[in-house]
TrEMBL record:
Signal peptide: none annotated. One of its GO terms (molecular function) is sterol binding. One of its GO terms (cellular component) is membrane. Belongs to the OSBP family. May be involved in the transport of sterols. This is Oxysterol-binding protein-related protein 1D. It comes from Carya illinoinensis (Pecan). It comes from the Eukaryota.
Length: 361
């Protein structure tokens, strides 16, 4: 499942999960709560960096489409599933060494003539082995010049990272103006939940880097420059090679399909999408033909959802959020995908819209 403004997709979360491993795992067992939330703030911002220069419309995942990423050497594994067609919702679950991350995504769109505004709906949750939990929601994304001019996107609004321990964080994404010569700015602070005091400041850009300064700079003498004491939290990987769709090397690797992996994947994995594979191979006519065929299957999927279809690997909790209910990795280990249909229709094994039962995929 590709990444775009409409949904939080697998490639996006997998990328963030990989960053989570590098950024967070060092602090899981060290007991430094302040550094932990500072790193989480950098993690939350870093996910937006991959949107710069990537405004192409993504592949629309089919209902029940899944994606996995397994990195045993890092103790990291990720899984996602499209759990709803209308509204479009993708749910994911990721596990690392000493932490778990899960989320579901939905966007409410507004069309303003020359731009589209996308307001996120959903909560992202990160929980550590010691029980400390952090939750936040994403900020608004707008895509400009969709009719005429150079297309670009911007992220703006307030992100609040609520911690169950001693610290919480508030980040302000500044909205870009037409004459803004220093766009994409993010600034905020970490607050002590016990005293209400500001204990650290954060500053940076969502497409470049994030820094922190301990203490409250507003209490410093006039003329004080906090950047003289700033410490780097995260910096975007400045890969040199530019690709057609401005994908990073990591993003490109997400669609790799080896023989060993093919033997373990369910027929719902997005690596098996024929239109996506044809496009990657430069077979544009075949890709377009497959795209039209899958669009027809997508219309069938909508009818399936109207008849009570339920996700295979996720279920709603009491708050209405989709949570992983388990079983995927166990089925993968056994290579047992009984009852999992070929949603891409390459084997002809598709459920009919008149089929009975809540779980048809």
């Amino acid at each position: 499942m590709g990444k775009a403004g409409q949904v939080l997709t697998c490639a996006f979360f997998c990328h963030k999960a990989d960053l989570t491993h590098d950024v967070l795992v060092t602090f899981v067992f060290q007991g430094n709560e302040l550094l932990r939330i500072l790193k989480i703030a950098a993690f939350a911002v870093s996910g937006y960096s991959s949107t710069e220069g990537r405004q192409c419309k993504p592949f629309n995942p089919l209902l029940g489409e899944t994606y996995e990423a397994d990195y045993p050497d890092k103790g990291l594994r990720f899984f996602s599933e499209k759990v709803s067609h209308h509204p479009m919702i993708v749910a994911c679950h990721c596990e690392g060494k000493g932490w778990k991350f899960w989320a579901d995504s939905n966007l409410k769109g507004k069309f303003w003539g020359r731009s589209i505004q996308l307001d996120p709906v959903g909560v992202l949750t990160l929980q550590f082995e010691d029980g400390e939990t952090f939750q936040w929601s994403k900020v608004t994304t707008s895509i400009y010049n969709i009719i005429l001019g150079k297309i670009y996107c911007d992220h703006y609004g307030t992100m609040r990272i609520k911690g169950s321990g001693n610290y919480s964080c508030k980040l302000k994404f500044k909205e870009q103006s037409i004459i803004d010569r220093n766009p994409h700015q993010v600034h905020g602070f970490v607050q002590d939940n016990r005293t209400g005091e500001k204990v650290a400041m954060l500053v940076g850009k969502w497409d470049e880097a994030m820094y922190y300064v301990l203490g409250d700079p507003t209490t410093k003498p006039k003329g004080y420059d906090p950047m003289t004491e700033a410490v780097l939290l995260w910096e975007r990987d400045k890969y040199v090679t530019k690709t057609r769709y401005n994908l990073s090397p990591f993003a490109i690797s997400l669609n790799e399909l080896t023989t060993g992996l093919l033997e373990r994947l369910p027929p719902t994995d997005s690596r098996l999408r024929p239109d996506q594979r044809h496009l990657e191979n430069g077979e544009y006519e075949l890709a377009n033909a497959e795209k039209l065929r899958l669009e027809q299957l997508q219309r069938q999927a909508r009818k399936l959802q109207e008849r009570g279809w339920q996700p295979r690997w996720f279920q709603k909790d009491e708050d209405g959020c989709y949570c992983y209910k388990g079983g995927y990795w166990e089925a993968r280990e056994k290579k047992n995908w009984d009852g999992i249909y070929d949603i891409f229709g390459q084997s002809g094994d598709l459920p009919s819209c008149s089929g009975e039962g809540p779980n048809l995929l």
